[in-house]
Amino acid sequence: MDDLVSLCKRRGFIFPSSEIYNGFAGFYDYGPLGAELKKNVKDLWWRNFVTQREDVVGLDSSIIHNPTTWQSSGHLDGFSDPMVDCKETKLRYRADQLFYSPIIVDGNTVGYVCIQEANDEDMIKEAKKQVKKMLKALDMKGQSHEAFSFKDLTEASEEEMSQIPSPGSGQPTLTMPRDFNLMFQTNVGAMSDASSVAYLRPETAQGIFINFKNVMGTSRMKIPFGIAQIGKAFRNEITPRNFIFRSREFEQMEVEYFIPPGDDVWQPYHETWLKQSKDFLLSLGLREELLGWDVHEGDSLAHYARACTDVTFRFPFGTQELMGIAARGNFDLTSHSEGSGKCEYTNNQNVHINLI
Q1: pTM for this entry
Q2: Is residue 350 a contact partner of residue 326, using CB atoms and an 8 Å limit?
Q3: Beta bridge partners of 228
Q4: Does a cis peptide bond (omega within 30 degrees of 0) precede residue 224?
């Protein structure tokens, strides 16, 4: 991964932002070649999903919306990641990106390892290092232990957290996980008080939903149809990492495809967009053996979603989401209809297609 980051900088693709001032974590600048490459990908996406289709139109909404937008969408209350603090080093981590496992020797738990998310090989390698060090300290050097059974920290009990070492200190100095809202807050206007608080958008989708009536009326589109948007989004990530994959400022390419109401309507549309999304990624030159599917089920599925499937990619740091396709029902239009009292199309569902 370090070689890739170095190559991107050396060839003029991506630079650390504000590098002459020692950089700024989670922000990057695209150099001459990077700017051209990014523009080419966006142009191809727009041509594939908007220009060459008669059922999708474009939109370019503002980065800052009326704050009530985020209240209606649920972002003010629920757009958060679980966070833990190291009480000794003062470092912060996303709890769902730290993985722990008991060290079991002869049926007894003698301690825990705690490592940051990475590919399987690197995680096991780091865990073995911690085990070797711990067994030596316990005068149990050379003894064998059971295979690791990794879980993320959100699953740890208070008793386990009191024994799990922090990656920063090597001691059990982590707090219990708590929610951390990811939205960047700012102030609009001359006053800096509660009445002027606003937020940089954490996603482009809400700009589409609040303009649904405007777009449908002016473009004379009829259900089913889609609204597409490419634009910046901002998330105050707890621990930006893995180069530009987990950054605080990024661009999204998104389609919200609106379909008729009904429990038996969404599935054909969802399947169609799954295929079209993967075909687009293959058309960019991505190798098919590096792509996969992650079907969300149970607790990983949002309460309002009928289905959600990610197209995954095998990065150097592990397999992660590259593109998400979700059948979100009528949650979004209903939420903004109730919040504003002005949107009249609450029964229509939407299929959400998002490439970051």
Answers
A1: 0.81
A2: no
A3: 58, 255
A4: yes
